[in-house]
Structures are given as C-alpha cells and as structure tokens.
Amino acid sequence: MFDHGSQRQEQYHPRLFQVMNNVQNVIIGKQNVIELALTAILARGHILLEDRPGVGKTMLVRALARSLGCTFNRIQFTPDLLPSDVTGVSIFNPKTLHFEFRPGPIFGHIILADEINRTSPKTQSALLEAMEEESITVDGTTHRLPEPFVVMATQNPIEYEGTFPLPEAQLDRFMLKLHMGYPQAEEEVEMLSRIQQGHPISKIGEAISLEELIQHQHKVRQVYVHRAIKRYIVDLVRATREHHLVELGVSPRGSIALLQAALALAYIRGREYVLPDDVKYLAPFTLSHRIILSPDARLDGVQADDVVRQVLAETPVPGVDVSGTHTV
Amino acid sequence: MAAPRSRLGGERWSNMGLNLVIAILLTVLFAEWMWPLLALTETYTVYPFLLFFSAVLLVALLRLRRFLSILLLSLLLLFLLHQLYFTGPFLSLHWLAVLLQKILTSLPALIGWEWHQLAVEVRTFFFFILLWLIAISLYQNVFVRGRILFFVVMTVGYMGVLDTFTPYDARLAVLRSMVTGLALLALVQFSQLAPKASGGELRKSKSRSWMWGIASFSFILCAVGIAYAAPKTGPTWPDPVPFIKSYATGGDTQVGKKVGYGQSDEVLGGPFMPDDTVVFEAITDRLTYWRGEAKDVYTGRGWEKSRGTEWLFPFDKFTEARPIMEASFIGPETDTEPVQATVRFVDRPLAQIFYPGDPMNIEVLTRQAVDVVGAWEQESGRLLVYRSENQRQQVGLAGYQLESMLPVYSVSALKGANLSQVPHEIMEHYTQLPDSLPERVADLAREIVEGKDTLYDQVKAIESYFRMNGYRYETEDVPVPEEGQDYVDQFLFETKRGYCDNFSTAMVVMLRTLDIPARWVKGFTGGQVIERNQGLLRVEVENNNAHSWVEVYFPEVGWVPFEPTPSFQNPFQFERDDLPSEHTSSTDQEEDPETSLEEQLPPEVQEPSFPAWDTINSGSHRKIKGMLIGAGLVLALAVMIRLLLWRRLILLWASRRYRGGDNGQRLVQAYHFLIRYLGRFVMPKHPAQTLREYVHSLESKIDVDKLEPLTQWYEETLYGKRRSSSSRLNQMYRLWLDVIRQLRKK
Q1: Full DSSP string of A27-85
Q2: Distance, CA of B402 to CA of B497 (rounded, Å)
Q3: Cα separation of B664 and B649, whole Å?
Q4: Do B688 and A229 count as a contact with CB atoms less than 8 A apart?
Q5: B418 contact A CB<8A
Q6: Which residue of B has its CA nearest to A324?
C-alpha cells in the first residue's frame, strides 16, 4: 500500500505500518498525510492542518486517535470561546468546601482544535502555552497534561472575516503544517462506496496500544543521526535566514523540529539512521510556516513553500560528493 | 508448451535473418569507404578486408563466447595476411615468425610516427585491427543501439568530399550508398520496432513486416527515381580544384597532351592529362622499372638519338647473341638477381619489348604465325620486333616472356669508381651538351657537388637536390619553354615544378656539365599490383606509368639508374657494403651518413619495397602520404576508442581496480566510482540531489533494480553507525559487479 515514489525502497516499521493501514481504511488515499501526522505524533510535535472544510481533517484525527488507542477531544473554536473553556475551570464544591478542578477538553491525548483562527488571541495563546509546556496552570495549581499530548489545529484559509490569524511567531509551535487537499476522483468514489456500508470509523479498532505508542516515542530518540545530517539541517535553516526574499527565517526551534521529525520519519520507515532524504522530504512541512516573507515577495505572490523548495534545490546534500573524498 | 516455444524460436531466427541482411548491407556500405583506400595496403584488392569486416559482424551476431570469437577472427586475420603477403604453407608458422619479427622491428617507426617506413605487412596488420574495431563499434551502434543514420550520413558526405576534391568519380557510389543507406535505415528501424511489439501484436507483426518492407522499398524507389529523373542544374561553382588552381595561376591552364610512352621526345614540356589506359599486364616476381630505351643527345628542347646500331637476332638465339650485343648495363663488378616476367599487351599490340634489368632470355608471342626477329639497338637498349631480317617492319606482339638479371649495386664499388677509367668513347658521347645551354646550369651543378669527392657522391648530391630546394612535382601547370629558352634552365631557375621529364633531363644535363657521362632513359614504372599470389605479382601498367629516369656510367659497374623525380623511389637495389658495422642486407641509404649529417639533410627514404602507387598521376609525396595515412589511422582509432570503447575501457578498468570489493572500504570506493561514472556518462548528479533521488532519476536511462539496494547499503554505511556483515558486503559486491556488467552491455 505504501509503495510509491522514493519510499518504495523502504521497509516500514511493521507495527507502525499497521497503524497507517488502519487509518487508511477511513481516509482513502493521503498516505503522505497519514505518515506525516504519525511522524509528528511520534516526535511529540503538534500539527497545523490548513485546509478547506470537509476534506476529512476530523476523520483523520479521529482515526489516528483510535488506531493509537488514544483519547480524542475536539474543541470547536468560536469567537466567544474563553481560555477556561479550553483548559477547564475550578469549581467550588459545596460539599467539600474546596475548589475542584474540572478539566477542559484539552485534557486528552489527541486534541482537534478546529478553526483555531476563529477565536480570540487570548484563548489561542492559552492553547499554545499548553502545547509548549505540556501542562496548564489554573488557579495556581499546575496540572500535567496526559502523555502523549498532540494538538492538531485546523485553520480555514479562505475566510478572513472575523478571524484572528495566528501570528507567525505562534505558528512556530507547530512541528508540521499539512495540507490534506481533495481526494482523487477514484478515491472519492471509493470513499462513497465505503460510506454506504456505514461509516468506516466505527469499524476500525486499536492497531497499537497507548503504552506501545509511548515506547515507540522513546525509541524514536535512539535513532542515529550523523553529524553531517545535522549540519545539513543547519545549512538549510541558515539558507532560509539568508534568503533575499525572506524577512524572518527559520528559528533554531525550527531546526530542532526538523531534526525530531526526521528521527521519527526514519523510525517509521524502519531505519536506525536518518537520511538526507528524510530531511529533504520533511523540510517543506516543517519550515515553510516558520518563514516570514519580505513585503516585496508577498506582493509578487511568492509563497514560503517556493523559498523552501529553492533552498532545497540549492543546498548540497552531505556525504555524496563523490568527486573526491566523501565529505562525511 | 511446444507451440509457443517453436514460435519464439522462429522469431529469433527470423530476427537473425533480418540481422544478416542488415550486416550484408552494412558491408556493402562500408565497401564504399574501402574502394578509394585501395592504395593503403598495396594489395589492390578490398575483398580480404571486406571479408574480414563481415566476418567480425557475423561473429558478433552469432554471439559466440568471447574467447572463441577472438580466436576465430585472429585465425582469419592471420590467414588473410598469409594469403596476401607470404608464400609457403599456412601451418608452417615460419612466416608467422617473420611477421612477428617485422612487427617488432617496426615498433620504433611506429612510436616515432614514421608510418611510411612500416613494412607493408605490418601496416596491413594494423589496418586489420582497425577494421576489427570499426566493425565492432558499428555492430554496437547498429545492432545494440539501433543507430545507423550517422553512418549513412557520413558515408554520403565522404562520397561528396571525394567527388569534389579528388579525381575519384563518386557519382555512382553516392547513388549506391544512398540506396543501401535508406534500406539500412528502414531495416534497422524495423528491427528496433519488432521487439517492442508484444502479445497480440506479435501475430500481426508478420503482415506488418510485409507492409513495412513494401512501404520502404517503394519509398526508396521513389526517392531514387525522382532524384535520377529530376533536372539537375550544373554546379553554380565550377569543380573547385581546377577552379582554385586556375584562379591561382591567372586562369591560363593549357589543355595538355596525354601521358604515355611515345617515340618522340624532341620537344619536352607542357602539361599532360592522366590516361589510365592499360598498356600491358604482367606477372612477375619483382616489381621494378620497365626499361624502354635511352636517349643521348640533348638539344635544349628535348632528346634525340644520335645513332642506332641495330643488331638483329632470332629470339631463340637471344642468349647466344647477347655477348655480341654487349648490353653493358651491368658491369663486371655488379651482382645480379634473376627476375622473370610474362607480359601481355592489353590496349593494342606493340612491337617494343619493355624489360626489367638486363634481359637474358626472351620468348615472344605473336598474334599471327609469323617469323619474327629481335632488333637490339645497342646504344639505347631499345628492343624491337621486326617481321624478318630483310623487312624492317615492326610486328605488334600479343605478349612476351622473359628472364632478366636485376642488378644489385654495391655502394662501395660505386664509391670506388673513378671518372678517369671511363672509356674515351663513352666519355665523349655521353657528355654532349648544346652550346646554347646557359652557364648558370653548370654553375648550379658545381655548387651542388662542392665538397663531394667521389663520383658517386656527386651523382647522389644532384639526384637528391630536387627533393628539397623548392622543387615540386606537378603535371598540369607546366609551361612549354619559350622560343630560345632552354628546357632545363627554365625548370631549374624559373618554374621549379614539373614531372619526371623535367627532373630526369635536368639531372642528366647537370651531370654532363660536370663531365659525368649520363643518359636519359624512358620506360614505365612498376605498375599497379592487382593481385598477389604465392609471391607472384600481377601488375597493370597504364599510360600513367610512363616514366623517365637517369642512367650514369660508372666504370666497372655499368650504367647505374638514378631517380631524381620526387615522390618516386629508385626500385633498384643498392647494397650498403661500405659501412663496416651495418647490416649488409640493408639495401637503402646510399649516402654516407657523415656527409648527410654535414649537410643537415633529412635521411632520404630509399625503400627496396615496390613503389607501386607512385604513378605519374599520383603527385603526392610518399612520405607525406604515409604520415597522413598514419595520422588518419591514429585519429580514427582515437575517435573510435573515445566514442565507443572509452566507457567500456573505464568499466573494465574499474572491475579490475575494485576487485575483491567485499572489503567495506574498497566497496565504498567502488560505489563512488560508480556514481562518478554515472554522473559523467549517463546523467550528471546535482549536488543538492540525494543519492536516492539521483538513482531514481536514472530510472529512465538505465535499469536501476540492482543499483537501488546497493545505494541503500551505501547510505547505511555512510549515515548509519552499524557495520555491514561480510556476507552482506559480499552480496553488495556482487550487485556492484552486476551493475558494472549491465553498463558494459549498454
């Protein structure tokens, strides 16, 4: 099933392969998105899904959560949503005469933060802080968020009225930014056939347990990264900073995110080491939302993706300069 | 199960049939290249080369094992060489030793780029090797890659150039190569299409091939027919060669007389036209000049004969009559070697006998049964045939057979010869000069021989004088002397260009100014060898072979022939017995090395080999020609290697260099080599490309099935931290070898 393009030489991690196949029962096509989402989860990163309504964002998150044995919560962001609606509130219990903490929807493993740009910056930042700290503090008490904790926020890119677009600096908190896109015609037909027999989400079960997921998350950190690959990541990131169309390039947080994502991707693809290919593959998803283009570039209709693509096309890959000695 | 297999087999054999047809057409097309190159190997036949060429193609088509095909072709090569140049049984191997010896002795000349000095066998040997390479590369291009257009275009272009710039008439050849080329294009295209048709199309392919055949045949017919029938405007620019020449000389080209052997030489000069009418055909064991007669009186405009004492004799008594005739070409101090010749007149019967050396025994073949007698003109050495002793009426012969003695001159005897011993009569008779001869001719002669002590050295100095000093061989742009102008003077000081008559006459006249007895001789050069068999040569002597040279009288040695005309070689043997340490069998280099060093002269090439292509109309200098041919061969070889074999050589080298690559480090290097090679010859690798991306991008060009796992291993080694097991290394090395093998086949 996962046999296309440059991944065809890969021997996927068998357990994670099952997870992906499981999700595929619900989300037809979109192998790349599923793989990337899983990558982010394994790397303990958060995902920003920017897409039109109705392309299956919610289904993706639900299917993933179910396959991974995680709890799933959904927060629909509206302009009147308060931070406490997200985090939860302390309520006075007249019986115990104590304030008791009522956890908000953020207390879950996989959180779908739908249309995050519709809510006020105050509420947004409450969520973003929770993502960064992996804990929340209400009324002076710190509550740890469950592990794993992954936020998948969606943004609607078409409507701008009454929205509060996330500032670029805040976008930095997301490890990957993904697009689902519409399914192919054949895939959509297949989807219709499956829906006819009842929604497939109700049929899929757990592919791996929550404990196993946490083990995998630990193992991801043991994947070997050659120094040359780290150097390659730094070269890429620095190239975005020096690019003439870029006002603000990728921060060091971006390089960390790229490295962590690469580790997870290598792990999913059954390798004990990271390849430049992993970095190259992930760079557009990890870097482009961290770049602020110069006003001129924006006027010319340049996209951050274009800059990343150009940087990738120009930065030499380490270790394969076979003209003389190899550079690793 | 049997049915499809047999069909497949049939398929294969029908492919074989198609390939054979292509191979035959290729040979035909290649033959067009060979005809004009006849002179290259002095064999005057292209068939052995074409045979070898087609044999290489055939062996390649049969896909024999490599060592077997090399063995077969080497045997064929040796066999053809033996047939061409050697006598004795093929299996005796004695001749092989001779060949090897020749190749070994040719090595210095080979390295020193002295191609003209190579023995003809060696040159032919290398030519065969070159043919081999050409055939293989054509095979690769045509049968493996399906490329033929380049060869067809090159052939037609080559014909065009030949037709334009050389006397070679390539009109028919262009037509032939066009037809062959178009047929080849159609067939090769078809053979490339055929394997692509699969499954259901296989069944249709039979009817398709008919359609294809008919379509291409009618296309070729149409193209040729239209080209043939279409009105052709004349060239807007006249034939460039004469045009350029006439432009350079002010447009005043005279239409000259035809070259040939005539009786009157009273007025010499003027241009002449080549005439390739065959005068006679001969079978002989030695190629040397055919002597006609000598003339003794120089008039300032040409040559006359002062007197003619004819001795008549019946041919069956020739041997007995000979002492009386006292030919005196060959004095008592000179050794001889026997030579035999059978001559048949081709164009028309002639009454004159042309002979090599000094004739000993002659049998004539008349056309009618008539009694004939021979008439030997003592002074000139002319040998005519008369009807009877009383009737001095010349009788044209069908042919004759003769035995002759070829002189082998001893250089030491020549050097010892002294003018004072020349008989008075000869001295007086052969130093005649007209009073009108300008003084500067004698001055020049004295200048040339200054410092030369012996008679021989003086003669050699004058003989070789024309080979430099700005004299050049020319047949077309040669003016006739003006009224009152001396023929030799005009040539020596004004025109400095001309053909054999100019050079030989000038040499005789200059010698005579020094009181050296000399005479002017005319006859034919050896002729074109058209066949070689068991040491015997079949030659054709054309009017183009008409020639004149010089004989100088050396006391005790006799009349010694000299060859002043550049681009002609003296065919007579001069034995270098004057140099003590020198190999005595060497017969060239008559000059004293010291004197030639003094004069800083380039060593003159005097080969005993037959000057077969030095006909009058081949004006180019042999040495230059040899060098050009050599340079051409090397260039062709270099281009061939660069274009077609270079990659394979590199791969071959690599498979040796990285042998035993199951050692990790070596295998990494081997992989680096592979990527470098692919980047260089298949598709360049961009530095921003990862290895995987690169290999993926190669997919459209090569089969990457083996390259992918190999790349994966390399990535693992490069970016991972685990060491590969030796069995994995071994497996990877085998993959690497497979990739190299695949690339070699490509």
Answers
A1: S-S-HHHHHHHHHHHHTT--EEEE--TTSSHHHHHHHHHHHTT--EEEEE--TT--HHH
A2: 37
A3: 25
A4: no
A5: no
A6: B672
CB distance from B746 to chain A under 8 Å? no
Residue A317 and residue B690: Cβ atoms within 8 Å? yes
Mean pLDDT across B537-551: 87
Asked if B369 and B432 touch (Cβ cutoff 8 Å), the reply is: no
- Residue A315: which of B671, B688, B694 has the nearest Cβ? B688
In the block, which residue shows the tokens 């969520």?
A127
CB contact under 8 A, A224 and B720: yes
Strand partners, A141: A138
DSSP letter assigned to residue B619: -
Smallest CA-to-CA distance from A51 within A152, A187, A124 is with A152
Report yes or no: B7 at the A interface, CB cutoff 8 Å. no
Q: Pairing state of beta strands B382-386 and B373-377?
A: antiparallel
Amino acid at A84: S
- Candidates 3.40.50.2000, 3.40.50.300, 3.30.450.40, 3.10.580.10; CATH matching A1-217: 3.40.50.300
Residue B526 token pair: 């050896």
The partner residue sitting opposite B719, judged by closest CB among A275, A313, A323, is A275
pLDDT of residue B256: 44
Q: Do B685 and A320 touch (CB under 8 A)?
A: yes
Which of B675, B690, B696 shows the shortest C-beta gap to A322?
Answer: B675
8 Å CB contact between B516 and B419: yes
Of B30-39, B471-480, B518-527, the poorest mean pLDDT is in B30-39
Q: Do B676 and A319 touch (CB under 8 A)?
A: no
For residue A311, list chain B residues with Cβ-Cβ distance below 8 A.
Answer: none
Same fold, A1-217 and A221-328: no
Q: Residue B356: what are its φ and ψ, rounded to 5°? A: -85, 145
A326: nearest CA partner in chain B: B672
Q: Sort out which chain A residues have CB atoms less than 8 A from B708's CB and list them.
A: 9
- Does the pLDDT value for residue B606 go beyond 60? no
Cβ–Cβ gap B679/A322 under 8 Å: yes
Residues of A in Cβ contact (< 8 Å) with B698: none
Strands B272-273 and B257-258: parallel
Q: Which residue has the higher pLDDT, A134 or B639?
A: A134
Predicted pLDDT at B313: 78
- Any A CB within 8 A of B716 CB: yes
Which residues of A, range 266-295, sit inside 8 Å of B by Cβ?
271-277, 280
Q: Tell me what pLDDT residue B640 has.
A: 66
The CATH number given to A221-328 is 1.10.8.80
B2 reaches A (C-beta below 8 A)? no
Residue B7: pLDDT above 50?
no
Q: Domain ranges for chain A, please list them.
A: 1-217, 221-328
Tokens (6 digits) for B355: 């002979």
Contacts of A315 in chain B (CB under 8 A): 688
A228–chain B Cβ distance below 8 A for any pair: yes
Question: Would you call B720 and A273 a contact, using CB atoms and an 8 Å cutoff?
Answer: yes
Ramachandran class of B303: left when φ > 0, alpha when ψ lies in -120 to 50, beta otherwise = beta
Domains located in chain B, CATH noted? 10-229 (no CATH), 279-616 (3.10.620.30), 658-745 (no CATH)
Element (H, E) at A311: helix A304-314
Rounded to an integer, the average pLDDT of A56-81 is: 88
Do A312 and B688 make contact, defined as CB atoms within 8 angstroms? yes
Check: CB of residue B719 under 8 Å from CB of residue A275.
Answer: yes
- Which one-letter DSSP state was computed for residue B604? P
Taking phi over 0 as left and psi of -120 to 50 as alpha, with beta for the rest, A301 belongs to left
pLDDT one-digit tens code per residue, A265-302:
999 999 999 999 999 999 999 998 999 889 988 888 88
Look up tokens 């357990």; give the residue: A15
